[in-house]
Amino acid sequence: xxxxxxxxxxxxxxxxxxxxxxxxxNHEWSWEDATIxxxxxxxxxxxxxxxxxxxxxxxVDLFIRMHVVKEAQTSSRIEGTQTGIDEALLxxxxxxxxxxDDWREVQNYIRAINTAVEELDRLPLSNRLLKKTHSILxxxxxxxxxxxxxxxxxxxxxxxxxxxxxxxxxxHHEGVPALMxxxxxxxxxxxxxxxxxxxxxxxxxxxxxxxxFLDGNGRIGRLLIPLYLISHGLLAKPxxxxxxxxxxxxxxxxxxxxxxxxxxxxxxxxxxxxxxxxETAGKGRDVFRKILELRTEADRLVQGLGKRAALxxxxxxxxxxxxxxxxxxxTDRLDVTHPTAxxxxxxxxxxxxLVEITGQRKGRAYSFERYIGLFLM
Length: 377
Fold this sequence. Notes:
By secondary structure, the chain is mostly helical. Helix 4 runs parallel beside helix 8 and helix 7 packs across helix 11. The chain folds into 2 domains: 277 residues, Fic-like fold (Orthogonal Bundle); 71 residues, Winged helix-like DNA-binding domain superfamily/Winged helix DNA-binding domain (Arc Repressor Mutant, subunit A).
């Protein structure tokens, strides 16, 4: 299929509305547009540099956790969830009661990402994996009654208050299983020579167009991107998430998806997607570089503590893993006494590595703000 002559689908008349029925995508894809080739080269180079950093950074999994938290918070924000990254790092009891529903949605997304990545060691990227991930995402939160872990068996819509004023109406539910089966085949079809970044661009568009679940499609569709890249060996770690790019360019993102459906303009969508990969991978690479610089500085400062340096080093490792903690939590993590933990915290504050964030006399919490700030760039 040539991108220049691609027809995205057709509008099918239902009882009182028209649904968009997309064409299958599991086939060869080609194009004459030279811009795609240039963007593809740029995106692959940036992705390779990001992957290299994820392989050379010591204890990289500590830092991947923050990438996951940032992705969960940003992807959920696109859907209207109002939880800041600082709140996402806090325990539930520290969250105001009126904000806990949003907080739980972000925590579910963190669990969903981590579980899905772990499952890739046992399961291929598949509809089965997406359903399992969706079930975790919807567990005990708004949307929990909208068939968690199952493809929809009724019509849904995007935008508006109902089918009458919807901005877009996805395909009829009877066609969802076949369309998702076709999409799954595209992920693993070795008989075609379509570059992986083009496949995942088409896959994200197709997933969002099918909208196979009653709720949570945006978050699962965005998570599909790193899952595909990991499963096909383009990333060793889940270090690339496009939600930040999509959120900052939200109008352009939705416009690019709709242009495919309305004007068959898959070329515009793929250009937009590849630009996002290149930009996001470049930012991720820079974050890893700054993490290494901060870690080198922190190690140098901690070494000046003499006999306490080794224990302070362990404390810093704990704060890389959980950048906001109370003294009691640090006590448990290090298996030391409360006075020892408090003394360590005072030293790390003096060195400019931690700050107290509650202003309370009891139950104080401490933040590794310089580290958190790297993920807010």
